[in-house]
Amino acid sequence: MESVSNTPAEVSATMDCEGNTDAFEKVKSKKSHKRKRHAAEVDMQPEETVAAKRPQFPALSGAQLTGGAVEMRKVPVPAHRYSPLKENWMKIFTPIVEHLQLQVRFNLKTRNVEIKTCRETSDIGALTRAADFVKAFVLGFQVEDALALIRLDELFLETFDVTDVKPLKGDHLSRAIGRIAGKGGKTKFTIENVTKTRIVLADTKVHILGSFQNIKMARTAICNLILGSPPSKVYGNIRAVASRAAERF
Questions:
Q1: Domain range holding 142?
Q2: Does the record carry RNA-binding as a key word (predicted)?
Q3: Going by C-beta distance under 8 Å and a sequence separation of 6 or more, which residues neighbour residue 214?
Q4: What is the mean pLDDT of residues 219-225?
């Protein structure tokens, strides 16, 4: 039989290991430490409040908004617009009744175009649009141009007097109106095309139909003509302003 002999160094090392078994400590794993720290951070965070839902209400009809009351607008018609109104009555009547769902009539006694709402009227702003449409036609605009007030938003009418810009009388006033119109209406047409507006000259009154920015450009050009600026200079100014506005938008 083979005898197992241990050296004194091995025997002493074995004895040291057996005697110090209680000295070992259990090492904590890093994963469990991370989990506990993450759980503590989650507990420290405040609970997010649930956003309250917005209340949803059904859309109200035109009759409910007005409380069932019938509203009416009257547009007076001057004597020189009776014949054009009679000739274009169906063009005025059709969009107001079929598209805006309103009632319209021409009162022969009071010489007014009367527009009022009814049960079928769904848009609360239809009455104002129809009144602006009829008013634009009465002022002298073509029916096709006035229809833009019904179809498009942000279109306005502006009226001012030539004498509001400069107090002119007699031939001076006539020449100022002639400068606005130009030979054969050339100046007026040029301003309309560049500024994308429509202009009506009625005696000393100037009516402009268009958007706010375009009305401002046309009004500035007309005021310069009234004050005596030559048309060539006015053309250059409005073209420069129009090109800058086109680049901006």
A1: 70-152
A2: yes
A3: 195, 196, 197
A4: 92
